[in-house]
């Protein structure tokens, strides 16, 4: 999985980068077919915003989150991505079962 992390009006410090990568590795444990991840961190007034796009076979998963604390934003984001990946995986499995494979 290739991870690209960029900041818009925010410096992506090594601890922030490590935290994002740690959280993304946990997602990869649930869904191992993630090929590329694009993460953008932003600061808008007092809100810390984060957005991620995961490239997976058959499409992409996009989520964003915001909070006063960037680490909390990262947690919210990965929770959303995790739910979407689980939903995608369940949909794939039900499609495979429906075709009799």
What does this entry look like structurally?
It is elongated, with a radius of gyration of 15 Å. A hairpin with a 2-residue loop joins strand 2 (36-44) and strand 3 (47-56). Helix 1 (14-30) runs parallel beside helix 2 (70-98). It has 2 helices and 4 strands, in the order E-H-E-E-E-H. It has helices at 14-30, 70-98; strands at 2-8, 36-44, 47-56, 59-67. Strands 1-2-3-4 form a 4-stranded mixed β-sheet, covered by helices on one side. The chain has one domain (1-97): Double Stranded RNA Binding Domain, CATH 3.30.160.100. The chain is an alpha+beta fold.
Key traits:
single chain; 101 residues; alpha+beta; Double Stranded RNA Binding Domain
Helix content: 40-55%
Report how far the terminal alpha carbons are from each other. 28 Å
Number of domains: 1
Per CATH, the superfamily is Ribosome hibernation promotion factor-like
Instruction: Trace the largest sheet across and list its strands.
Output: 1-2-3-4
Low-confidence stretches: none
CATH topology: Double Stranded RNA Binding Domain
Number of helices: 2
Radius of gyration: 15 Å
Q: What is the highest CATH level, the class?
A: Alpha Beta
Mean pLDDT: 92
Q: Pairing-aware structural class of the strands and helices?
A: alpha+beta
Percent strand equals 25-35%
Strand and helix order: EHEEEH
What is the 3D shape?
elongated
CATH architecture: 2-Layer Sandwich
Major β-sheet annotation? 4 strands, mixed
Number of strands: 4
InterPro entries: HPF/YfiA_ribosome-assoc (IPR050574), RHF-like (IPR036567), RHF/RaiA (IPR003489)
GO molecular function: ribosomal small subunit binding
Subunit structure: Associates exclusively with 100S ribosomes, which are dimers of 70S ribosomes.
Family: Belongs to the HPF/YfiA ribosome-associated protein family. Short HPF subfamily.
